């Protein structure tokens, strides 16, 4: 598997870890997959604090997806860069759902997930156009968790342009690195431990939308207090400094976009 694809094991491990602990996120599928196919992570990639962060981020995306599916029951859900994530099993809507990732990732994913009348796996590079032909036009709820940092600015802008052209209505949630984080990643980013050497940051949330028809809507918290309160004692204090303090604000952001 290519180095970018190997990064999927970092959030998978995080969700499996917290699920076993009985905090933040219940994800039996992550536990199952990790037990069978866990990638040999090392160093910062196996940090329990990073695991807590991965789980909180996933929980925020889950809650947002649930809200959007309730508000837009006819919208198709697109989980771009889905990896081995089982979000469709953690959320409550009945919307048509499309998990999209590289062919090698989807091939691995098919070992653990089964398509049905509601759920489809789509093999493709989101930086290319072909994968969109597998998804009907209309309303869309788009989840971009842990993927924007691997898309060059021109590719991210092109993706927004193609989404706008394909869908009549869009609600999109995307986390990203800042440009400071992208530069610092050469020294401190866990994805470097699985071979990723190039990531990208975004400081102006409106930049990918320029001329696309999609607009920036709001910024969301990545680590809400309610989730952090599930941690206790020294672990909570350390986590707050690493992932919820002023430094975290310089590194990670979570943006919502819309059309229609």
Brief characterization of the structure:
With 260 residues, this protein is α/β, with parallel strands linked by helices. It has eleven helices and seven strands. It has a seven-stranded mixed beta sheet.
Structure description:
- By secondary structure, the protein is α/β, with parallel strands linked by helices.
- It contains eleven helices and seven strands.
- It has helices spanning 3-6, 9-21, 28-37, 48-71, 87-90, 103-109, 153-166, 179-188, 225-228, 233-244, 246-251; strands at 76-80, 97-101, 119-123, 138-144, 167-177, 215-219, 252-259.
- Strands 3-2-1-4-5-7-6 form a seven-stranded mixed sheet.
- α7 (153-166) links the parallel β4 (138-144) and β5.
- α4 crosses α10 (233-244).
- The longest helix is centred in the N-terminal third of the chain and has 24 residues, at 48-71.
- Mean pLDDT is 90; it is low at 191-196.
Instruction: Estimate the strand proportion.
Output: 15-25%
* N- to C-terminal distance: 38 Å
Instruction: Look at the structure and give the mean pLDDT.
Output: 90
- Give the overall form: globular
Major sheet attributes: 7 strands, mixed
Count the helices. How many? Answer: 11
Helix content class: 40-55%
User: Gyration radius, to the nearest Å?
Assistant: 17 Å
The chain-level structural class is: alpha/beta
Topology (SSEs and partners):
Blueprint: H1 3-6, H2 9-21, H3 28-37, H4 48-71, E1 76-80, H5 87-90, E2 97-101, H6 103-109, E3 119-123, E4 138-144, H7 153-166, E5 167-177, H8 179-188, E6 215-219, H9 225-228, H10 233-244, H11 246-251, E7 252-259
Parallel strand pairs: 1-2, 1-4, 2-3, 4-5
Antiparallel strand pairs: 5-7, 6-7
């Amino acid at each position: 598997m290519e180095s970018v694809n190997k990064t999927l094991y970092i959030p998978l491990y995080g969700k499996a870890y917290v699920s076993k602990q009985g905090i933040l996120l219940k994800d039996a599928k992550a536990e199952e997959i990790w037990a069978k196919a866990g990638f040999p992570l090392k160093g910062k990639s196996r940090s329990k604090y990073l695991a807590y962060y991965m789980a909180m981020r996933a929980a925020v995306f889950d809650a947002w997806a649930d809200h959007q599916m309730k508000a837009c029951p006819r919208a198709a859900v697109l989980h771009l860069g889905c990896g081995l994530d089982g979000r469709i099993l953690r959320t409550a809507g009945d919307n048509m759902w499309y998990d999209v990732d590289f062919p090698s990732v989807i091939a691995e994913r098919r070992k653990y997930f089964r398509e049905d009348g509601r759920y489809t796996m789509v093999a493709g590079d989101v930086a290319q156009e072909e994968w969109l032909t597998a998804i009907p036009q209309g309303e869309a709820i788009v989840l971009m968790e842990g993927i924007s940092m691997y898309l060059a600015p021109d590719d991210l802008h092109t993706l927004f342009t193609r989404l706008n052209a394909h869908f009549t209505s869009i609600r999109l949630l995307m986390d990203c690195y800042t440009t400071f984080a992208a530069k610092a990643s050469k020294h401190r980013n866990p994805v470097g431990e699985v071979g990723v050497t190039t990531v990208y940051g975004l400081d102006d949330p409106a930049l990918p939308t320029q001329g696309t028809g999609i607009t920036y809507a709001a910024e969301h918290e990545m680590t809400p207090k309610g989730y952090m309160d599930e941690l206790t004692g020294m672990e909570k204090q350390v986590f707050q400094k690493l992932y919820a303090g002023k430094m975290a604000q310089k590194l990670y952001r979570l943006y919502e976009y819309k059309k229609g």
